[in-house]
Amino acid sequence: MKNATLCFILTEDRRWILLGRKERGFGAGKYNGFGGKILPGETPRAAAAREIAEESHVTVDPKGLRDAGNVTFWFPYQPSFDHYVHVFVTTKWHGEPRDSAEMTPRWFRVDDIPYEEMWADDLHWIPLVLAGKSIEAAFTFDEDNESLSEWIIKEIDAPPGADEPVS
């Protein structure tokens, strides 16, 4: 299972969200937040900040990321796709988003997020995170690796272990 991060960047008034269209690799063609793999010895916060910079050219202070919980993605028909994801939200960032080889950033109104161009699970949990909730969730994908076969979402008080280095 891959250990990863995902961060949603919002304007200070929380009316706009920066999403990136994945240009290559896992999830190509879909919009998502920014994030990715956690390197050995790196905290999830540090990994999220690094990935945001690599994918969008925007910088964030890892300390300014709000821990919004974690989501596990199960792909029984393609286990190499399984991910355990540390989720963050921030309204504090610097720079102008620019395309990278991996992502094409674009601003969307929070009330007009293109869920139809995202993973099938996103509509179920992203609104909770954007509303300030912290969650633990698990989604299992069907044989097509696109549609959901089952899921569970729990609101939690404080996400565990978001600042621990990953080995």
How is this structure best described in words?
The protein is built from two helices and eight strands. By secondary structure, it is mainly beta. Strands 1, 2, 3, 4, 5, 6, 7 and 8 form an eight-stranded mixed beta sheet that branches. A hairpin with an 8-residue loop joins strand 4 and strand 5. The mean pLDDT is 94.
- What is the helix/strand order? EEEHEEEHEE
Percent helix, as a range, is 10-25%
Question: Number of helix segments?
Answer: 2
Overall mean pLDDT: 94
Query: Main beta sheet, described?
Result: 8 strands, mixed
Provide the low-confidence segments as ranges: none
State which percent range the strand residues make up.
Answer: 35-45%
Secondary structure: number of strands: 8
List keywords for this structure.
13% helix; mainly beta; 2 helices
Topology (elements, then pairings):
Layout: E1 2-10, E2 16-22, E3 31-32, H1 44-56, E4 66-74, E5 83-90, E6 103-109, H2 122-130, E7 134-141, E8 148-156
Parallel strand pairs: 1-5, 4-7
Antiparallel strand pairs: 1-2, 2-3, 2-6, 4-5, 7-8
Produce a short descriptive summary:
By secondary structure, the chain is mostly beta strands. It is 13% helix and 35% strand. The mean pLDDT is 94.
